[in-house]
Amino acid sequence: MHNIKSVGILTSGGDAPGMNAAIRAVTRAAIYSGLKVYGIYRGYRGLIYDEIEEFSTQNVSNIIQRGGTILKTARCKEFQSPEGRQCAYDVLRRRGIDSLAVIGGDGSLSGARIFGNEFQFPIVGLPGTIDNDLYGTDTTIGYDTALNTIMECVDKIRDTATSHERLFFIEVMGRDAGFLALNGAIASGAEAAIIPEISTQVDQLSELIKAGFRKSKNSSIVLVAESPITGGAMGLAQRVKEEYPGYDVRVTILGHLQRGGSPTANDRILASRMGAAAVDALMEDQRNVMVGIKNDEIVYVPFTKAIKNDKPIAQDLMSTLRRLSI
Length: 326
Ligand code: F6P
Prior knowledge:
The chain has 326 residues and is of the alpha/beta class. The protein has 12 helices and 11 strands. It has helices spanning 19-32, 43-48, 82-95, 106-119, 143-164, 179-188, 196-199, 204-210, 232-243, 265-283, 303-308, 315-324, and strands at residues 6-11, 36-40, 52-55, 100-104, 123-127, 167-172, 192-194, 220-225, 249-253, 289-294, 297-302. The strands form 2 sheets. A 7-stranded mixed beta sheet has the order 3-2-1-4-5-10-11, sandwiched between helices. A 4-stranded parallel beta sheet has the order 7-8-6-9, with helices on both faces. Strand 10 (289-294) and strand 11 form a beta hairpin. The longest helix has 22 residues, at 143-164. The N and C termini lie far apart (61 Å). The chain binds 6-O-phosphono-beta-D-fructofuranose. Residues 14, 105, 129-131, 173-175, 226, 259 line the site of 6-O-phosphono-beta-D-fructofuranose.
């Protein structure tokens, strides 16, 4: 016998394609198991201000294919204070909601960890972020879609880069993580990726130029992870313009379009599996864990591990990119 009778679902932080598929999965798996389900709007803010609605299976019909999140999302300062979290707890008690499924990234799961510990409240997290920067899971919900969006955009930019024989610096998201930049570069056949994980040790731009970058090419594409550590696409382009005035340089910042769009099949399946697994975890009385996927199997990762550890980038990716871009 499990102790849980109801689950509240919220999405928090930056939205990611596949969040709706995850909301649908948690809702339906929970109702299937006889639990009540509550949709909480605008993340932790909606928890504090009681923006909550009981969900039936119909509330999540026709959303698996939609980007964004039907629950809306927010980054909530008030939840960072003990008073804010107390308000949230009072709302949950009053509503009779006895567990939470939180879909979000690093910051959202950090909030979940603190709240779960403070009130001994059952919470399971689902990694929902395009950044793919959560430890303990091979991928996060939204990452595959964002990667495909980047690939499509770079394909288009390549047409004009080739026609004009230009060097393009394309900045992609990732919030200090290089997964989107590095795998986006491999997928789109770019010449290089500049990522924060490596920038701390070497000046990647100088290395590139020293290695004879563009020796046999008239046009080139370099993906840059947004981050003060890499200097961003603008900073790098400026440096090249100053040091190599012969290059015709342009910059594109892909920005928030990377967060939108219909989720790929991979993201829909991942979100569906993780949503169902989140309900299993709550019913098994698991606490303070994030659902992850490792070698195609569902795993449960303690929040502390998922949040605190830096997720490593596979060693072979950089050398593969280098070897294939000659
Ligand atoms: O964490 C997801 C993310 O898209 C990051 O890649 C990016 O740095 C950030 O969110 C942008 O946040 P905002 O939507 O608040 O500008």
